[in-house]
Amino acid sequence: MPGLMPVVFVGHGSPMNAVQQNEFTESLKKLGRRLPEPKAVLVISAHWETEGTRVTDGAELKQIYDFSGFPASLSRLKYSPPGAPALAERITHLGNSGQIIPDRNRGLDHGAWTVLHHLYSDADIPTIQLSLDTRLTEEGHFSLGRLLLPLRKEGVLILGSGNMVHNLNDIAMDQYVQPYDWAHFCDEALKNSLDCQDDDRLLKYGDLDRSLIRRMAPTTEHFLPLLYITALRAKLEPLTYFHQGFQHGSISMRSFVVGN
Question: Is Oxidoreductase given among the entry's keywords (predicted)?
Answer without folding.
Answer: yes
